[in-house]
């Protein structure tokens, strides 16, 4: 069997000291998470995070910077996740849009309120704390070469 981590994207979205999170159904009951999900076949990172935020919150998301890469596994028998976290802003909310399966609703919560909630993983607080500490990297640090048909040297 070939081991491979599950690649996910997530968004830290802050407005007036409140962060956009989703309340979702998990195998362990309801928990909070950033708008996040799996990278799909043929999808680049930016497209994936925009899609996930829209599907889970009904907000359009514009990534403005990259916050970090996080590798997490709950225990040796668990799935390993490789999370790419983005920061940016939301606009054009559609309250009539149905949310992704398993999403109960979206919430705007402070860091202190989030710390009191059951969360899907420790990455939620880690990503928010990295955002609050000022970690910001240009989106240009991420490059996609999907279906690239050039010579053997790839340049930026």
Structural description of this entry:
The chain is α+β, with helices and mostly antiparallel strands and 156 residues long. It has a single domain, classed as Nucleoside Triphosphate Pyrophosphohydrolase (Alpha-Beta Complex), CATH 3.90.79.10. It is built from 3 helices and 7 strands. Strands 1, 2, 3, 4, 5, 6 and 7 form a 7-stranded mixed beta sheet that branches. The chain is globular. The termini are far apart.
Please sum up the structure shown:
The protein is of the alpha+beta class and 156 residues long. Helix content is 18%, strand content 38%.
Write the layout of secondary structure elements.
Elements: E1 6-15, E2 18-26, E3 29-33, E4 36-38, H1 45-57, E5 60-73, E6 80-91, E7 103-109, H2 111-115, H3 123-132
Parallel strand pairs: 1-6
Antiparallel strand pairs: 1-2, 1-4, 2-3, 2-7, 5-6
CATH class: Alpha Beta
**Beta-strand percentage?**
35-45%
Helical fraction: 10-25%
Q: Assign the structural class, choosing from mainly alpha, mainly beta, alpha/beta, alpha+beta, or little secondary structure.
A: alpha+beta
Q: Spell the H/E element sequence.
A: EEEEHEEEHH
Taking the sheet with the most strands, its summary is: 7 strands, mixed
CATH topology grouping? Nucleoside Triphosphate Pyrophosphohydrolase
Number of strands: 7
Q: Looking at this structure, what is the CATH superfamily?
A: Nucleoside Triphosphate Pyrophosphohydrolase
Low-confidence stretches: none
């Amino acid at each position: 069997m070939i081991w491979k981590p599950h690649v996910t994207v997530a968004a830290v979205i802050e407005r007036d000291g409140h962060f956009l999170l989703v309340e979702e159904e998990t195998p362990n009951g309801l928990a909070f998470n950033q708008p996040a999900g799996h990278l799909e076949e043929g999808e680049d990172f930016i497209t994936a995070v925009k899609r996930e935020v829209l599907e889970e919150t009904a907000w359009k998301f514009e990534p403005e910077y990259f916050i970090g890469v996080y590798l997490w596994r709950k225990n040796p028998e668990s799935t390993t996740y490789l999370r790419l976290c983005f920061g940016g802003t939301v606009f054009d909310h559609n309250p009539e849009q149905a949310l992704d399966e398993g999403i109960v609703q979206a919430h705007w919560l402070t860091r202190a309120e989030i710390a009191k909630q059951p969360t899907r993983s420790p990455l939620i607080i880690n990503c928010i704390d990295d955002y609050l500490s000022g970690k910001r990297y240009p989106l240009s640090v991420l490059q996609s070469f999907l279906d690239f048909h050039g010579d053997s040297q790839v340049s930026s």
